[in-house]
Amino acid sequence: MLPAPELAAPKPIREVTGLTPRDLGPGILASTEPVVLRGLVSQWPMVQAARASAAAADAYLRRFYRDATVNAMLGAPEIEGRFFYNEDLSGFNFAPVRVRLDKVLAELERYRGAEHQPAIYVGSTTIDTCLPGFHDENLIDLGGRDALGSIWIGNRTRIAAHYDLPDNLACVVAGRRRFTLFPPGQVGNLYIGPLDFTPAGQSISLVDFLKPDLGRFPRFATAMEHAQFVEMGPGDALFIPSMWWHHIEALEDFNVLVNYWWRQSPGYMDTPMNALMHALMSVRDLPPAQRKAWAELFRHYVFEAGDETSAHIPSAARRVLGPLDGDAVRAIRAQLLKRMNR
């Protein structure tokens, strides 16, 4: 039997220091590489409370609580904080619940310091809905971007590697977190699970990063050659570009993250995942020669499209090959729905 390959140590993510929430510009917010922003939100009142104690951070959050309910994930101590599938991927190893946020905070306080804690996690909850007024005291300037601000609260949890379509600015405001990132091209080495049955909406890597089974997932060793990582504490932030895979570990009994998502594309554009699902349905299982022909069409009209693609057609006659706007996209969507409902 050949010895298992050793995993390469991930490289540190590039860091920038000395910026404040008013200093963010396109050099950061439009980057195609991840960037660590040490101390970016260190002056936020939330961060100052967290640096005092977990109890102070908890009390600060409760100031804004207004009887809001949130989606939470609860797992037994045996899952060791790793929210994942069950053994045969027919279900999950946790229970999703709808619960009041103050009840979640009370449970986190109850188990703080305990040796065997259940896994408790509130993910992607809109701040203005559950904690109105939080943003008035914890300000950030994203240059006019239409960003969605969300909060993530839990204890020692692990979120499997996944990607997000929007760009992402993740700010650690309590506890510590470790991020491991991979560029989009590593998708084939991360062993991604089902696309249409996922723990929290995004497809995830099936590799346990703390105990990788290289016999089952040998190409993960190649993925690690391209990995980047950072460990962050209260006040630090990380810019994660669109489509970068990221694995997240929360390292303390009480962890809070605030993040902002935005897209660089117009709001009327559809999510590319719909196109991928449609291609799985209509292209993937064609005969090889036909699939290759369609790959050329996609290359020509989508992936390498430019001004010359339709330059030979009068501009008034280009239709879907011309510039698109909201009305044009709605017309295309209506045509597709009509064809699919045949």
Give the CATH H-level superfamily of the largest domain.
Cupin
- Low-pLDDT stretches are none
Which structural class is indicated by helix and strand composition? alpha+beta
Put simply, the count of helices is 10
Mean pLDDT: 95
CATH architecture of the largest domain: Sandwich
Overall number of domains? 2
CA(first)-CA(last) distance: 55 Å
Strand order in the sheet with the most strands: 2-3-13-10-15-8-7-4-6
How much helical structure, as a percent, in the residues?
Answer: 25-40%
CATH topology of the largest domain: Jelly Rolls
Strand count: 15
Beta-strand percent range = 15-25%
The top-level CATH class of the largest domain is Mainly Beta
Domain JmjC: 120-277
Protein name: Cupin-like domain-containing protein
InterPro entries: Cupin_8 (IPR041667), JmjC_dom (IPR003347)
Organism: Massilia consociata
